[in-house]
Amino acid sequence: QVHLMESGGALVQAGGSIRLSCAASGDTVCIAAMGWYRQAPGKEREVVANITSDGDTYYRDSVKGRFTISRDKGEDMMYLQMKTLKPEDTAVYYCNAQRWPGTFVCGEYDWWGQGTQVTVSS
Length: 122
Prior knowledge:
By secondary structure, this protein is mainly beta. The chain contains no helices and eleven strands. The chain has strands spanning 2-7, 11-13, 18-26, 31-39, 46-51, 57-59, 67-72, 77-82, 91-99, 110-112, 116-121. The strands form two sheets. Strands 2, 4, 5, 6, 9, 10 and 11 form a seven-stranded mixed β-sheet that branches. The chain is elongated and about 45 Å long.
């Protein structure tokens, strides 16, 4: 029902900035909240930031003040602006979308993109 595609991952020096993009397609009216997750080598996948349909945002403590999540619902796009990057930000970053509760015709409870690699060198 919903397809997500991330882009923008790169190799960047510590202190640099990049912007990740997520394009949603298919039945995008099924999407309520969206978010960015990441998984570093040998670690569990963790939430980085999320944003509701109304635009309310959440950030994990380690990225507050450095990362900004945004969403363009008219273009079915979501972004993660990442600044002052640190080596510990190195991970595969995944786009996530959550279905409106009770909208059973939308199928899955949530959807994931394929991931995009961000590598921060020191």
